[in-house]
C-alpha cells in the first residue's frame, strides 16, 4: 500500500497496486505496437515478469491524434484487457497517484475535461513562451507572451503574484533578445561557443551533462566568470523545484544545447511532439522501467536520469525496422534502489538479457 494520498482522477474508482509488482512506463509508440500485436517478445517479457504498465494523460492525448479510429479502438481494447494503470503527478510535489483503468473510467480519461478556460489559455501561452526559445511563435516576443499570461490571470493573482510577473517582465526588458520576434535561445548560446555541434554527439555515458559543461564552460564563463553548471542549465532558479521539474528543465536544455535534440523544433507540430516526450519523461520517473524505441529520447532521458541520480531503468528497442525484435537496457546497469515509494525497488537487469526473436514487420 502506498502512503501517499491517492489520486482521484475525475472521481474514478481506485485500485491499489501491489508494490511487489514491477511498474513500467511505455512511450506511445511502444504502447501502440503492443496493442497491434507487433511486439510479441516484449509482451512475453511483460507477462512473465508480471509488469504493470502505467500511462499518463499524455498517452491519451497522443491516442486522440491517431487519425484511424480503428487503431484508437485497438489501443483502448488493449488497455482494458491488460489491467493497465493511470498515473498522475500531484502538482508541486514529488508524489503521484495511481488508478486502474477500467470500463467505468476509460471515457473519463479519454475526455478529461479542461480546467478553467483562463488557466488553460495561460498554460497554452506558457507553452508558446517555451516554443519561442526554439525559434517558434515568430509573431510575438517573449515579453508579449508573458504580458498575455499576466493579463489572462489578472483576476486570479494576488498582489505578491502580480509583483512577481512585473519583476520578471522588468528583467526581460533589460535584454533586447526578449523584445525580438526572431529570438532563438539556442542561437544565442551557440553565438558564444567555439566548439562544433557535432562534438556533442560524441559524448556518451558516464557523466554526459558534466562532460557537456566541460566542453562549453570556458566559452560561457568568458561572458559570466561566475556562471555555474546549475545556473547555465537553469536548475538553480528556484530552490523548490521538484525532481520532475528538474527532469523537464534538463530535457528542454539538452534540446536547446543540441545534445541529440529533436529536429525542426521551430515547427509547432514538432515542438508539441517534443513537449510530450518531456511529459512522458517526468511521469516515467515514478516507475521502475521506461520502454521506448526513440533513440534521441532515450539518450536525453539517460543523461537526465544519470545527472539527477534517478535509478528508473531505460529499456530501448533497437533496430526498429528489422524483423528481429531486440532490446537493450541502457540505464542503469547497477542494482535498483529509490527512496520514492511509488517507484518499485525492482532490478530489471537480471531479467532482461537483450531479449530478441522473430516478429512481424511493424505495420505502416
Describe the structure.
The protein has 364 residues and is an alpha/beta fold. The chain has one domain. It contains 14 helices and eight strands. An eight-stranded mixed beta sheet has the order 4-3-2-1-5-6-7-8, with helices on both faces. Helix 12 packs across helix 14. The longest helix has 17 residues. The radius of gyration is 21 Å and the shape is globular. The chain starts with 22 loop residues before the first strand and ends in a 6-residue tail after the last strand. The N terminus and C terminus are likely disordered.
Question: Which SSEs are present, and which pair or pack?
Answer:
Layout: E1 23-26, H1 28-35, H2 40-49, E2 52-55, H3 57-63, H4 69-81, E3 85-89, E4 96-100, H5 106-110, H6 117-132, H7 142-152, H8 159-173, H9 185-190, H10 208-223, H11 229-233, H12 243-257, H13 268-284, E5 289-292, H14 295-307, E6 313-318, E7 324-331, E8 356-358
Amino acid at each position: 500500500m502506498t502512503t501517499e494520498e491517492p489520486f482521484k482522477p475525475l472521481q474514478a474508482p481506485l485500485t491499489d497496486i501491489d508494490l511487489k509488482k514491477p511498474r513500467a512506463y511505455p512511450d506511445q509508440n511502444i504502447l501502440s505496437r503492443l496493442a497491434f500485436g507487433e511486439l510479441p517478445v516484449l509482451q512475453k517479457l511483460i507477462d512473465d515478469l508480471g509488469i504493470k504498465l502505467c500511462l499518463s494523460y499524455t498517452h491519451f492525448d497522443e491516442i486522440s491524434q491517431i487519425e484511424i479510429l480503428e487503431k484508437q479502438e485497438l489501443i483502448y481494447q488493449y488497455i482494458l484487457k491488460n489491467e493497465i494503470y493511470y498515473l498522475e503527478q500531484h502538482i508541486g510535489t514529488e508524489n503521484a497517484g495511481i488508478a486502474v483503468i477500467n470500463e467505468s473510467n476509460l471515457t473519463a480519461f479519454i475526455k478529461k475535461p479542461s480546467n478553467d478556460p483562463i488557466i488553460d489559455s495561460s498554460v497554452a501561452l506558457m507553452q508558446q513562451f517555451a516554443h519561442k526559445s526554439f525559434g517558434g511563435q515568430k509573431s510575438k516576443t517573449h515579453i508579449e507572451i508573458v504580458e498575455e499570461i499576466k493579463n489572462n490571470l489578472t483576476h486570479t493573482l494576488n498582489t505578491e503574484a502580480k509583483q512577481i510577473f512585473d519583476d520578471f517582465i522588468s528583467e526581460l526588458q533589460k535584454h533586447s533578445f526578449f523584445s525580438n520576434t526572431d529570438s532563438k535561445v539556442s542561437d544565442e548560446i551557440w553565438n558564444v561557443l567555439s566548439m562544433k555541434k557535432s562534438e556533442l554527439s560524441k559524448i556518451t555515458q558516464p557523466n554526459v551533462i558534466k562532460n557537456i559543461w566541460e566542453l562549453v564552460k570556458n566559452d560561457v564563463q568568458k561572458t559570466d566568470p561566475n556562471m555555474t553548471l546549475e545556473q547555465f542549465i537553469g536548475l538553480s532558479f528556484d530552490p523548490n523545484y521538484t525532481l520532475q521539474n528538474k527532469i523537464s528543465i534538463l530535457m528542454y536544455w539538452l534540446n536547446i544545447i543540441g545534445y541529440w535534440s529533436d529536429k525542426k523544433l521551430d515547427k509547432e507540430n514538432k515542438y508539441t511532439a517534443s513537449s510530450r516526450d518531456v511529459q512522458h519523461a517526468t511521469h516515467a520517473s515514478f516507475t521502475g522501467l521506461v520502454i521506448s524505441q526513440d533513440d534521441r529520447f532515450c539518450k536525453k532521458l539517460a543523461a537526465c536520469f544519470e545527472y539527477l541520480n534517478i535509478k528508473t531503468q531505460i529499456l530501448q528497442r533497437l533496430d526498429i525496422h528489422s524483423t528481429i525484435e531486440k532490446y537493450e537496457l541502457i540505464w542503469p546497469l547497477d542494482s535498483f534502489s529509490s527512496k520514492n515509494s511509488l517507484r518499485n525497488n525492482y532490478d530489471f537487469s537480471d531479467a532482461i538479457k537483450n531479449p530478441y526473436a522473430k516478429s512481424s514487420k511493424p505495420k505502416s
